[in-house]
Design the sequence.
């Protein structure tokens, strides 16, 4: 009997341990969805695997090997060869009864040849400089492509958050209209309100359900756009948790009204004022122009002399009294006298391309300067609008409380109730939407100042502007 009791205790103990382990495991798994750095690392990994980012990296490696190829033109080239043929004998010497062929009737030779370009009189030198600039341009493009895709992530997340806020708005609308329907029914049932008001309340409630269905579809579509961009699934990237714990928990909820002003330091925007000419996107285009300039310059020396060193060791079939090998060292200087205008026309093509790109560069600087100014203005407008929406929201909450109380006591019409309810919900939606607008415009301000937009860095810059 005692043995059976011990077995039961043992099984019960194992069961308790299992429950504890399971609970801890579940808690850890749940906590990771609240971990900012978990999401930051995951999103970085996903963005690094986006095709456009991989392509930019491939182009960087390609430019690197292209530069190495240009350098290799100054390297040592070593080749081996073997020749075999037939020549009719031309010289014979009779010694006694013997005849000796001085020339070979079946000659062969083999050996190795070493060549090295010593100097190209600025032709190859300019090509190498052009390749160096091109490699630098691809390096900048690789950085820019990463930031472009982080920006795309924030834009898509912005759409999702706005869709989610509207979905929450419809859920609140359902709750309010359902409560309104119940109140109207109670008042109708005791004869305070006519049946027509009750029917209208039913219609309002049904309309809120329809809006909710549409909002759900829009939210699903917005999430699918982001998941498709990141080439992942919602099992890997829990967007709902990200919005709740990361976007709202770390960004949106940190913005609030304090002493009739937002807890945002507008003066910090003045520190984010990088010259448009110094931005990555400008430097990429300008470096492309510089690379073409050196390509054009190299064409001035395309027909210039080339100094070449050649060393050859040649093993051959003996011919009479000659030795069976040769060793030669040659220093040659060669140049092209005429190329039918090939280098001239190629240079003209490059010069036209340079001028075209330079016009693009000038327009780019103007557009970047305008974009920086526009997003700063939009941010300030969002700031001012947000203060107004906070005050409006607080006012609408009190107004709805009074109107609801009056309606329940038959002192106000259903239109006054609905108007007050819709104004409250709309003011809350405007508040959340403006917070999202403000955050996205801050992302644009950072983007147009070449700030790295990975989530860890963005969080640092976010708290630089929060007081």
Sequence:
């Amino acid at each position: 009997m005692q043995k059976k009791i011990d077995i039961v205790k043992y099984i019960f103990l194992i069961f308790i341990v299992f429950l504890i382990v399971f609970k801890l495991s579940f808690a850890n798994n749940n906590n990771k969805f609240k971990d900012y750095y978990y999401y930051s690392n995951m999103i970085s990994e996903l963005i690094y695997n986006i095709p456009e980012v991989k392509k930019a990296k491939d182009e960087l490696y390609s430019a690197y090997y292209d530069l190495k190829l240009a350098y290799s033109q100054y390297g040592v080239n070593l080749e081996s060869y073997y020749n075999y043929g037939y020549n009719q004998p031309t010289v014979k010497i009779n010694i006694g009864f013997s005849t000796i062929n001085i020339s070979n009737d079946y000659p062969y030779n083999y050996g190795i040849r070493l060549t090295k370009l010593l100097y190209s009189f600025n032709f190859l030198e300019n090509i190498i400089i052009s390749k160096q600039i091109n490699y630098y341009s691809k390096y900048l493009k690789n950085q820019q492509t990463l930031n472009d895709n982080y920006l795309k992530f924030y834009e898509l997340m912005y759409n999702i958050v706005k869709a989610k806020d509207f979905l929450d708005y419809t859920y609140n609308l359902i709750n309010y209209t359902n409560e309104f329907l119940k109140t109207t029914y109670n008042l109708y049932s005791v004869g305070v309100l006519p049946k027509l008001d009750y029917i209208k309340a039913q219609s309002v409630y049904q309309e809120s359900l329809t809006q909710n269905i549409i909002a759900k579809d829009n939210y699903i579509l917005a999430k699918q756009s982001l998941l498709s961009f990141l080439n992942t699934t919602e099992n890997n990237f829990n967007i709902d948790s990200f919005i709740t714990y990361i976007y709202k928990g770390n960004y949106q909820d940190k913005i609030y009204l304090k002493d009739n002003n937002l807890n945002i330091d507008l003066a910090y925007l003045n520190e984010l004022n990088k010259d448009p000419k110094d931005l990555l996107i400008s430097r990429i285009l300008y470096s492309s122009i510089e690379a073409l300039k050196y390509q054009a310059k190299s064409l001035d020396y395309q027909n210039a002399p080339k100094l070449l060193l050649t060393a050859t060791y040649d093993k051959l079939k003996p011919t009479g009294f000659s030795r069976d090998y040769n060793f030669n060292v040659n220093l040659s200087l060669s140049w092209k006298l005429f190329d039918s205008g090939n280098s001239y026309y190629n240079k003209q093509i490059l010069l036209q391309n340079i001028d075209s790109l330079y016009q693009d560069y000038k327009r780019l600087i103007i557009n970047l300067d305008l974009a920086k100014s526009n997003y700063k203005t939009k941010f300030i407008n969002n700031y001012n609008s947000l203060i107004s929406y906070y005050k409006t929201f607080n006012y609408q909450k009190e107004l709805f409380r009074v109107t609801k109380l009056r309606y329940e006591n038959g002192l106000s019409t259903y239109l006054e109730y609905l108007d007050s309810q819709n104004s409250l919900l709309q003011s809350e939606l405007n508040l959340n939407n403006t917070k999202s607008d403000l955050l996205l415009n801050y992302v644009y301000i950072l983007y147009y100042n070449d700030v790295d937009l990975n989530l860890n860095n963005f969080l640092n810059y976010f708290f630089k502007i929060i007081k």
Notes: Confidence is low (pLDDT under 50) at residues 21-30. DSSP finds ten helices and eight strands in the chain. The longest strand covers residues 108-119. Strands lie at 76-84, 92-95, 98-101, 108-119, 257-258, 261-262, 306-316, 325-334.
